Amino acid sequence: MPLEPLICADTATRVSSVLNRDVKQFGKKHMFDGSEETCWNSDQGTCQWVTLDFPHTVKVSQLHIQFQGGFSSQLCTLEGCRAGEELVKISDLYPEDAHAMQISFATSKGLARFQVEETVLDKLKITFEDSTDFFGRIVVYHLRVLGERL
Predict the structure, then answer these.
(1) pTM for this prediction
(2) N or C, where is the chain less crowded by C-beta within 10 Å?
(3) How far apart are CA 140 and CA 31, in angstroms?
């Protein structure tokens, strides 16, 4: 079955912070708008994060993410859960500090730098634990989650 984008208008999203609380210019919506000109820019601090509450149960197979070089994360922890359950760790990702789109691939307990274990969930949390920016800021131009709606 072909993979489809799982983030839709009914997906509830939250972020840890927004630079200077300027949601108009740097808000979370910019990660999903498809524009090369806009981005989510976190404020400073350690462990920035994004949560996605899907309107339906999904099977996550791929993660596409594009950082701004110099404002990326060297370690991303993915956690997920079904509705009403506690988050559990799915995998660690080790993206490159680059502006290029980075695409994860599904695996079953793989050891590659950027692979996601296929997981059925209702909520996904991505924690950016090791920012390349001295102040801990994260800049994301694009975030897509692909898989199947169940």
Answers:
(1) 0.91
(2) N
(3) 6
